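Preliminary data (for renewal application), coenzyme A complex.
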Amino acid sequence: MPNEPLPCTHRRILLRRLRVDDLMAFQAYRCDPAVGRFQGWQVMSDAEARAFLTDVNAAALLQPGRWSQIAIALASDESLIGDIGLCVAEDGREAEIGFTLALGAQGQGLAREAVTAALRLVFAQTVVERIVAITDTRNLPSLRLLERLGMEKIRTQQVVFQGEPCTEDVFAMTRGRADSEPG
Ligand SMILES: CC(C)(COP(=O)(O)OP(=O)(O)OC[C@H]1O[C@@H](n2cnc3c(N)ncnc32)[C@H](O)[C@@H]1OP(=O)(O)O)[C@@H](O)C(=O)NCCC(=O)NCCS
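Predicted structure:
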């Protein structure tokens, strides 16, 4: 594929395309209620997940107006430990990032390495000026991660999420900042 930015390695992490042979690992964390509690995605059946992995494996990455889903894998053995969603806005100026790590991979600084690599990848591959991440204010691991990444809280918003009123913090990283943060 021309200009294919994946795979890319950062410290202990490999960002790569999701693959159909990730199905078991993908379903193991995507079906974990503790992992999905604050996420916008719905749990998929195995058949739906297989079709999803097939689609995202072949899809062009970072196309404006469309979500790209990529794998977080361990650099040591390429095994899947989570995934990252990236969406460049229609006008190409801003992108949004979302991230998920299997429970067993959390608490080791691996999400920080993966999200750092993804932020750098988006700035390197597109002309976006800033990348935002939106998190429920009750999602403390996510808040801690965004702060450790050096992202700046730009606003707080009230939304209805899955039928429940909740409060979200919106964080942003501007171009140039991602390279200056240690990650
Ligand atoms: C949000 C999420 C990705 C954060 O994962 P995480 O593993 O806590 O994040 P980090 O990679 O930053 O790891 C930090 C933790 O690892 C610890 N750690 C251990 N070794 C470390 C190392 N070598 N380097 C850095 N941190 C290390 C840190 O002390 C920290 O623990 P603490 O938060 O208890 O202080 C994870 O909780 C998750 O997937 N949640 C479910 C999905 C979700 O809600 N996503 C966010 C929606 S946008």
